């Protein structure tokens, strides 16, 4: 009876467990919500702990992460010989030719909706006031991604056994998520930076999500999500207020950019995962002959890399904090001749030639040395995965000011960040420069897709992506979800 009820709940949300290549520390089957035979409440403490562990789904190089990065102008997933073909799952994302049968679209839908429903179950399990606030934040976090990626969100209460979930439209879901966050805020802990608690829901984490929500509200409030977008001043004021609350909690920019992705203490980290490992972020890009060995996969686009100034420390390629490189792996963008710790060239074992990463990289048929690799979570001291940090919040505030036509204040904030990163001072600011700055600061952190959509560059061509269909600002509802829930409707164009 118990197993049958679990299966029914998953099917009613349109979810079918599909295994995928992921961080080995995350077992998707382990995150299926448990329930009693009668569908009654479970232990809220255990469920809440499990909900935090579920954040490990974001560690994977596939699924959720792939939907936010491979579709953007800062990452390319080339095939290299027989490697990374995988029936086209990577190439179709970069080329914007995915359809409703794409495995990662289905997997991501399953993961996010399952996790949101578990949080709903926590709220029906007699939690403490703080536990309820944490559950509302986590539910908001998961539902936000569903709303952002698909534009509609299935929802049912925990006690609605046998009921097909309703489907919230994008703005109905937006209001529901905002309500969850505003109700949670007074009861969440007021955690400052550089504490163990940055892996726990907090007032600042809720404010960071609210800032992101309101910054993108113009996208979410359009009929089809395609633009053009009109940004309301009142929404921008809410972004600014949320950012100011985070600054008042003591968060600030770190002097060393790459400290944020290491085990070093930093004042920037607002919310991050505490489960699994960020190792996939490194191994998915490193060459076979690096140590630790990589999977020789993803690269950044030459056009994206070429926008950086040479003195911008975010470009990386300098030693680790103790003065030595770790196994021949620098930080940031790995381009040109790769060196061992002793300064001698890394030699590619297969060809016997020096390992030299070349900027240009085709989507199909790339050699093992084509493509600039990216390392933010260095294997010598990699931290847990980051979801929100202060630099993003600062840039959200600057963008909100710019959209309110307060260009002087916006420019001052951007230059504060650029000075910290060793970049030159800008004399003016516009939408192109603002989007570029977000790219310089936040590359490969999983938010490029929505940034490009908001700045209306997502449907423009780049690299080998020539498809410019405007409906691709939303992903298709998986067919299995449509079959199990008649309240869902397929998104336009699919």
Describe the protein's architecture and organization.
With 494 residues, the chain is mainly alpha-helical. 38% of the residues lie in helices and 5% in strands. The chain has 17 helices and eight strands. The protein has a two-stranded antiparallel ribbon. Strands 3-8 form a two-stranded antiparallel ribbon. The longest helix has 22 residues, at 129-150. The protein is globular and about 65 Å long. Residues 1-12 and 14-41 have low confidence and may be disordered.
Largest sheet: 2 strands, antiparallel
Return residue spans where pLDDT drops below 50 for at least 5 consecutive residues. 1-12, 14-41
Assembly classification: single chain
Mean pLDDT: 90
For the largest beta sheet, what order do the strands appear in spatially?
A: 1-2
Helix content: 25-40%
- Strand fraction equals 5-15%
- The rough form would be described as globular
- The sequence of SSEs as H and E is HHHHHHEEHHHHEHHEEEEEHHHHH
Q: Kindly name the structural category.
A: mainly alpha
Q: Please state the CA-atom Rg, rounded to the nearest Å.
A: 22 Å
